[in-house]
Structures are given as structure tokens and as C-alpha cells.
Amino acid sequence: MPLIAKVAVAAAPYAIDKPYDYIAPDDARPGQRVLIPFGRGNRTGEGMILSVRRETPDKPLKAVRQLLDADPVATDREIKMALWMRQRYFCTFYDAIRTILPTAIWYKYQEFWQLVSSPQEVDLSDREREILESLQPGPQKTEELKERFGETATTILWRMAKRGIVTSVTQTDRKIRDKVITLVSLAVPLDSAVEKLRGRGRNAPRQMDALKMLAQAGETSIHDLCYFTGVSRRALENLEKQGILTMRQQEEYRINSSDNPEKPADISLNDEQSQVYEMILEQALSGKAGVTALEGVTGSGKTLIYIRLAQELLRLGKTVMILVPEIALTPQMMARFTAYFGNEVALIHSALRLSERYDQYKRIRRGEAHIVLGTRSAVFAPLDHIGLIVLDEEQEASYESENAPCYHARDIAKYRCVQENARLVLGSATPTVETAYYARQGIYQLAKLRRRYNEKNLPQVILADMRLELRRGNTGCVSRVLAEELSKNIRRGEQSILFLNRRGNSRQLICPSCGYVPQCPRCSVYLTYHSANRRMMCHYCGFSTKAPEVCPDCGGSLKHVGVGTQKIEEELRQLFPDIEILRMDADTVGEGHEKLLREFEEKRIPILLGTQMVAKGLDFENVTLVGVLAADQSLYIDHFRASERTFSLLTQVVGRAGRGNKVGRAVIQTLTPENDVIQAAADQDYERFYEREIRMRKIRRDPPFADQFVITVSGREELHVRQACAQLQRSLRDTSFLPPYDTMELEILGPAPAPVVKVNDRYRYRITVIGRNEKILRDLIAAFMKEFSGRRENKGLTIYTDCNRME
Ligand code: ADP
Ligand code: ZN
């Protein structure tokens, strides 16, 4: 009987993504990649074997053309996880498995082989011995070994690897590297980038590869991009000029365990901490999966509890995963874990090179590291025997992937805990409303840390009413009370941080005489003006053009609008002429933020002014005043998380003041000082915020009371898109009245244009389905998506679905 393999096909779009049967060679195993003929033309494509069985087929089957991996790259656990993600996130198997496995697996990389043990001690064939001897002088590249010993060399090496004689590594030179690395990311969504590249009429397969790699891996070092895709630095720099890519410099992150040569002190927890620790430890060892919400103000000792839990679980043969929102903001976490656990920890984060990430992956898979500490994607790390997964600052949006499949690390962590009967801990001072709700309903367990370890007082908060300032004739961005507090600090030699609650530095050009505002020719948005290169750019499709000198409509002179940090900086300079001010925003990224922050601390620069990035994680002794310039900015936007996010952000910013021994103050400037969210944040009162917010969510049927699926359809002709969308909405609604759906309280809303309706000449309309995120509803939506894609009249339209997106 032949061996038949179920194969997931890389090229299969969502509508026809299912396992296909192929005759496979006898040594085929699940998790290996293969080349297979696919479709009517039998073009060769890539696939992955999901399972194999012996059977006489009842119809003629195509045969696998080639096995691509000597050993499976995916384990059964990873295949199972990908299949789960596929139905959970409406993506293909390949989209999921690409997300799960390290990016380096999908690209050519230099692999080296090296000796583990001394070859004399073991029983070897002549050929094996020959190969081993060639490794005696040092690691050798796979390619060179193949050249010398033939193609079968890798099979032999893999066999010996299993016996623990040799091992493969990705990178062997650990020489001192550049201090500064250039990180590249897509400036626009992948399809816009691809279209833009194609639009230039040139076939540039390497550049195309680089774009795809960026979409998959997120921000990547320029070194890696060139190395893995063969694209040239010059080509990447050109893509940056055209607005397809963005580049930024970052100092290389170094965690040196030799910085802390002393063994760190034993931790003794206080009573409150011990209770929480005992409770979570017992839960983690109970053999049953579950979730604990750990609510504790910053400084209450959460990190130390994580360390104690990890120590104890490791001792009992379990492994631990700690996830953080962004590694650059949690240097202390890294330093502490490395100090306590040394080589037991595998760090996985975006500042690592792909090859380094791959090496970490292999260390974990081989069982050499028992703790994984990392950002979002670390949740896929191949850890065995997981006892505990921690999501610290679980409310942060960075836990959700911005590229499809848009998974949330919390969901994946929950899935893994269920598979492994492990405990998930969601830590936060300001948890998401859903988490707080489940904890109060008894669906999660609740653990609370009420006190700061050092008993320090929370900062004193002053609300500044900006309407009053306007009435008094102050049209600037700095209120009188903030200006006074700033001068106090300057006199005392203490430092202040001012925070502008908005992304980047968006500014438009406008003609004051005729009202003309330059717009993107391909998208329904205004262009953003960048002072650095005097160009106007579109952040949706990458369109960029030189800023005109005069208004093209009436010839008048153009002005900038939009309050950016630069403008506030000017205002501050007028208020405090001789005082040094440090500005940190999207325009200053080139200079390296860590360096700027160090300067701020060491030189005791009086004022730091910045966007989002100054809000989090910073911890400076001498900062005693924090100012929030426009607290309302994120409050009145149309998203069910607007209040939650504003509360969390304000709490975090306010918490920046008074870290050291002096008492801190915070000034929150707002146009709506009577707003409940702002008041609760000023009082640092989560419970009050939660009580009000949960009532609102219930009235509006927002999560956790129902889930929101957003189905988006896009295409080149607006009418076509709108009609197809309306048709889909009608048939979904009709079905929702039929059993078994009629009892599920489904609401099918829309179609409505997306917030930015046109991107890159494609119009986007959406349908919102409100209901419970359960299999029955997901299956219904998936069936409608597939049916939609199969219809002839929908040719040229694309469809995708997200659930409860963070943004
Ligand atoms: P969180 O993670 O909740 O913000 P940390 O664990 O970072 O809190 O603790 C805040 C500070 O208090 C740290 O400097 C930490 O060393 C100190 N601290 C907390 N608990 C203890 C303890 N039991 N013994 C000694 N120091 C502690
Ligand atoms: Zn555009």
C-alpha cells in the first residue's frame, strides 16, 4: 500500500484551503515541507505534510515531487496549533504555520555544523567518522560539507544530531558587532507596498521577497534582510525614499550577565506578596488549566513574584514563559531574569537578528532553556512542560499582531495553557475591562496587590481646564498651572516630562485663503507633511511628493496645521528661554531613543517632551513632575476601547512622577475635566473606572458582553464593493433568523465604509457581526466568506474578517 500524505498547500487561498491528498515517499513524515504539483496546470508549489497514512487510494492521486526537509520543521503540536489558528482567525494553514515557526526557517540561511561530544567515544561508520573529523578544526558550513561529502551528508549529520554527537547552529561568529543597527519596517500595508513596487514596471523579485519578509517578521535589521533575501542595501534605501519602507537606527541591545557577576540576593516576599505567590503556585501545580488576573499597582512587586514562581516551578521540572509588551521598555525585567537564571533564559524579541532568534528557538526546542522571556511572538516558543505563562501589562495593544493573522498573544497563551494544563497569569495595574470582568465573575481567579512595596504615595494630580485657559486668552498648549509647576521644578533642579497623547507628528499643509488641503491621489486621506525632507506623504499607500511652494489652486502661501511636538517645543522655548528641552518623537527616532533618554538622565535636562514613547516603562529618580498636554486626544474616538485605553495611558503617565524619594505631581490638561474617565484616572481609581465602563459596555453590547466580528470587503469599484457587501449582509441577516442561529442574538450591521474608505485605489466596506465568538458563529462566517469568494460576480474583490481588534 502506498503512503498517502495530507498536505497543506502554500499557494491555496482561503476559500480552497484544505488538506489535499498526495502519494508520498516512504520516509515522509508530518511537519516536513514538500514540493507538490498543484492546480490544473500542475505547477510546482510548496506544501507541508500534516499527516500520513497507508491506504489504497480509491482515485488516482498526484505524487509529492520532492521532500524539502530532512527532518520535520514543525512538530505535531505546532501543526495542531496552526489548524486551531486557522479556524480561529479565518486564515490559511500556511499563514498560521508561518506565524508560529521562526522566520529564518522560510529563508535561506547559513547553517553550520559543530561537534558536541568527542567522536572517539561512540560507535561510528567510516563515513560518519570522516564527516566528524572534518568538524574537528571548528564548525563547517552545510554547503561546504555537502560539496565534500555529497548530498547525503545532511541526512548523516541529522542522524548524528539525534544521537547528540553534532549540532547545527545558524551563526558562529559572535564577534563584536556594530553598536548601532538599522531596523527596517514596512511604511505601508503589504499589498500597497507590492502594488507600488509593481507599479514601477520592473520585475524585482528580491525586493518583493524583502517586502514579504517584512510583512511576516515585522521590523527586521537591514543586515538580515539583505542576508536572507539577497536584496541590496542600495535597493532598500531606494524603497525608503519612495515611502515604501521606514528605517530607524537603534543601539544594539546588550544584556550581559557578566554585568551582574554576584549571585542576586534571595527574595523574601512580604505578606501580601506571599499570599499571591502561594495562590498562583498552587494553581500552576493543580494540573488544571486556568487564568489568574493579577491586579497590582506599579511597584507592588509583580516582577519579583514572577521570579519566585519561576524558581519554584523550574525546581519542580516545569517551564515558564514570561511575555512583555515591548522589550525595549522592560530592560529591568530582562536584567533581573538574566541575573537570576543566566542561561536558563531564552530571550526572544524584535531587536534580535533573525538568525539569533532562530538559535534561541533551537535552544528551547532542544530543552536547553526552561524560561522564555519575550514579546508577542515568543508565545509560540517550543517549550515543553509549561507550568506557567505570564502576560505582563496584558492591556497593551502590542500583544495583538498588526499583520494577518491578527492573533492576540493572550488567546494563544490561553490555548497553550489548556493544552498543557498550565496556569495563565494576566498582570496589570489597569487590566482590560474584559479581564477585570471575568475575574469578578469567577471565570478567572483574582489576585490583588494593593500596596506599593516601598509604601510610597501616588503622585498628586491637578486637572487643568483648557476651556478656562481659552477664555482667559491663553491660546497656547501649556496651561498657566502647568507653566507654574514647570518653573518650580526648574528652580529646584528637578526634572519634568511632558507628554503629547498622539501618534507620531501628524501635520497637514493648508492654504488659508482658499482652504485647499493636499490629498492622496489614491486614498481618501490628507497627506502628512514631513519637515525633515520637505515632502508630503500618505501613511496608507506610501505615496510621496515634494511639498509645493504655493497653493496649486489659488497661488496663496501654504501653512502648517496640527499641533505637533515641534510646535509645543517652540512655545516652551518662549516660556523658558534659557532652559534646555529634549524632544522625542517620530522625527527624532534617527538619533536613537535610548541615547536620548540616557542624556536626559545623566545631564539632568530639565524638560523632556515626547509622544506615546515617553509614557511607558521609564523610571527616573529625579522626575517629579509629569504633564499630559491633551488628555482628551484618545478619549473621543469611535472605538469601544477608547475609555479603557485613555484610562490606562493616563495612569501610566501619572505613575512616571515621583519614582524616587521625592513626592511627585502630575498635571492633566483637558477640555472636559468633568469626564468620568479623566476624573477616575486623576484619582488613580481603577475600580471606579471599571464600574462605570462595564455598565456602558453592557448597554452597548460591547465586549465582554458580545464580540464584534468585522468583515471587510475591498475592490477597485466603489459601487461593486458596496453592492457585494450589501448582498452579503442581507444573506447573513436572513440566515441569522433561521435555526440554530435564531437564538444567538446576532446583529448583522452595515455595510458601512471603513474609517478610511479608499486605500491605494481600493474601496473598503465592512459588515459588523455582533455575537459570541464561538465555533458555531465562526463556522458560519467562514462558510459565508468562502461562498463569497467563490461567486463569479465577486471576482476582483477580497474579503477578510477580524474579531475584537485592539485598534
Ligand atoms: P512591579 O513589577 O509590580 O512594578 P517590582 O517587582 O518591579 O514591581 O517591584 C518594585 C520595586 O520594589 C523594585 O525595586 C523591587 O526590587 C522592590 N520590591 C518589591 N517587592 C520586594 C521584596 N519583597 N523585597 C525587596 N524588594 C522588593
Ligand atoms: Zn495614499
Coarse shape:
globular
Neighbour order of strands in the largest sheet: 14-15-13-16-17-12-18
Compute the separation of the termini in Å.
53 Å
Output mean pLDDT. 87
Name the poorly predicted regions.
Answer: 172-178, 253-259
The fraction of residues assigned to DSSP E strands is 15-25%
Helix/strand-derived class?
A: alpha/beta
Helix content: 25-40%
Instruction: Give me the number of helical elements.
Output: 24
Largest sheet: number of strands, sense, barrel closure? 7 strands, parallel
Rg over CA atoms, rounded to whole Å, is 28 Å
Which small molecules are bound?
A: adenosine-5'-diphosphate, zinc ion
Oligomer: single chain
Give the number of DSSP strands: 33
Task: Please give a structural write-up.
It is a single chain. This protein has 807 residues and is of the alpha/beta class. The chain is 34% helix and 22% strand. It has a seven-stranded parallel sheet, with helices on both faces. A six-stranded parallel sheet has the order 19-29-28-20-27-26, with helices on both faces. It is globular. The structure holds adenosine-5'-diphosphate and zinc ion (ZN). Residues 268-270, 273, 296, 298-304, 453-454 line the site of adenosine-5'-diphosphate.
List keywords for this structure.
alpha/beta, seven-stranded parallel beta sheet, 33 strands, binds zinc ion
What does the secondary structure layout of this molecule look like, with pairings?
Elements: E1 3-9, E2 20-24, E3 33-38, E4 43-54, E5 66-67, H1 76-88, H2 93-100, E6 112-115, H3 126-135, E7 140-141, H4 142-149, H5 153-162, E8 166-169, E9 180-186, H6 190-199, H7 205-217, E10 220-221, H8 222-229, H9 233-241, E11 245-251, H10 271-284, E12 290-296, H11 302-315, E13 319-323, H12 331-341, E14 345-348, H13 354-365, E15 371-374, E16 386-392, H14 409-420, E17 423-428, H15 433-441, E18 445-449, E19 460-465, H16 466-471, H17 480-492, E20 495-499, E21 508-510, E22 528-530, E23 535-537, E24 544-546, E25 559-561, H18 565-575, E26 581-584, H19 593-602, E27 607-610, E28 623-628, H20 642-654, E29 665-670, H21 676-682, H22 686-700, E30 707-715, H23 718-736, E31 747-759, E32 762-771, H24 775-790, E33 798-803
Helix pairs in contact: 1-2, 6-7, 7-8, 10-11, 20-21, 21-22
This protein binds adenosine-5'-diphosphate and zinc ion.
